Amino acid sequence: MRFLYKRPRLDQVSNELDTLMEVMVSDLFIYLDLFVFSFIFTMFLSPVIPSLTMAILFFLVSYSFFGCLYYFVISKITIKK
Q1: How far is CA 58 from the centre of its chain?
Q2: Residue 8 to residue 1: CA distance in whole angstroms
Q3: DSSP 16
Q4: What span, in angstroms and rounded, lies between the C-alpha atoms of 16 and 60?
Q5: Are the C-beta atoms of residues 42 and 59 closer than 8 Å to each other?
Q6: How many CB atoms lie within 10 A of CB 42?
Q7: Is 5 helix (H, G, I), strand (E, B) or coil?
Q8: Contact 70, 77 (CB under 8 A)
Q9: pLDDT tens track of the chain, all 81 residues?
């Protein structure tokens, strides 16, 4: 069955990997990822959080904190390189 599957050329694989890396390190994707992780973090801590208002406030604070941490630490380092 191996003879039926043709491997892609190395330059095609390299181009696809470059495109994938551009998407994975884009700021929009990272902020979307931080949004999802903050939501999951809030859901895991929901039994401890006393009310819905506090849960929403906790979500906003955690998303803001992680977003600022990314912006001031990670993106500033990559700009200087």
Answers
A1: 19
A2: 16
A3: H
A4: 35
A5: yes
A6: 19
A7: coil
A8: no
A9: 566 777 778 888 888 888 888 888 788 888 999 999 999 999 999 999 999 999 999 999 999 999 999 888 877 776 655
